[in-house]
């Protein structure tokens, strides 16, 4: 009975779409480069959304960083109902209180996430961007941090950890992601 109802609900849902938008001056080529990897990781259509302006009120002059939670607020306002999720790609240094910096932040309640290219440059730039994009979108589907250092949901303290984990979900998180999207 319950399984039957779940199937019915799935059948009525329109095809899922994840939108990706530059936030502020993030390079369009880097945003476009995320499309194939996100499509593979989340098994749905990925669309490039119009750029979302970098909110001036997110700037913290004493830290010289932007508060990532305020970027999420802007993304939540820009999110269209037909998008299952909206991921913002920024190119400025991000923080939340009590941490020196963050690579990004995801919000499952509002279905929005953001990450920044600012700390990812180097030989593995695009792979790092893909890794952080999948990680923050993972949070929007309710996934928590993982104790498997090779799972994309591992919490990276630094780039070496980002490079080690890569873009793949561990089997447990892969299952949890599939369940969350039924
Ligand atoms: Zn995280
Ligand atoms: Zn995991």
Total tally of structural domains: 1
Determine Rg (CA atoms, Å). 16 Å
Q: How would a crystallographer describe the biggest sheet? A: 5 strands, mixed
Q: What name does CATH use for the topology?
A: Collagenase (Catalytic Domain)
What overall form do the CA principal axes indicate? globular
Offer a few descriptive terms.
182 residues, alpha/beta, five-stranded mixed β-sheet, three-stranded mixed β-sheet, binds zinc ion
Brief rundown of the structure:
The chain is of the alpha/beta class. The chain is built from seven helices and eight strands.
Structure description:
The chain is an alpha/beta fold. The protein has one domain: 3-Layer(aba) Sandwich (Collagenase (Catalytic Domain)). 38% of the residues lie in helices and 18% in strands. It has 7 helices and 8 strands; from the N terminus they run αβααβββαββββααα. The protein has helices at 2-12, 28-33, 35-42, 68-78, 125-140, 159-165, 171-180, and strands at residues 17-22, 45-48, 59-60, 65-67, 85-90, 94-95, 104-107, 112-116. The protein has a 5-stranded mixed β-sheet with strand order 2-1-5-8-7, sandwiched between helices. A 3-stranded mixed β-sheet has the order 3-4-6. A hairpin with a 4-residue loop joins β7 and β8 (112-116). α5 (125-140) crosses α6 (159-165). The radius of gyration is 16 Å and the shape is globular. The two termini are 16 Å apart. The mean pLDDT is 94. Bound molecules: zinc ion (2 copies). One zinc ion is lined by residues 135, 139, 145, 155.
């Amino acid at each position: 009975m319950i399984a039957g109802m779940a199937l019915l609900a799935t059948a009525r849902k329109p095809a899922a779409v994840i939108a990706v938008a530059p936030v502020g001056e993030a390079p369009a080529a880097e945003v476009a480069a995320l499309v194939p990897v996100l499509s593979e990781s989340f098994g749905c259509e990925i669309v490039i959304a119009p750029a979302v302006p970098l909110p001036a009120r997110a700037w913290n002059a004493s830290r010289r960083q932007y508060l990532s939670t305020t970027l999420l607020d802007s993304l939540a306002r820009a999110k269209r109902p037909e998008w299952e999720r909206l991921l913002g790609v920024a190119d400025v240094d991000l923080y939340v209180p009590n941490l020196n910096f963050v690579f990004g932040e995801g919000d499952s309640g509002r279905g929005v996430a953001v990450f920044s290219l600012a700390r990812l440059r180097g030989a593995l730039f695009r792979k790092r961007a893909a890794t952080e994009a999948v990680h923050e979108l993972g949070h929007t589907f309710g996934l928590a941090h993982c104790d498997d250092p090779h799972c994309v949901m591992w919490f990276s303290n630094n780039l070496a950890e980002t490079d080690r984990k890569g873009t793949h979900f561990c089997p447990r998180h892969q299952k949890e992601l599939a369940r969350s999207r039924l």
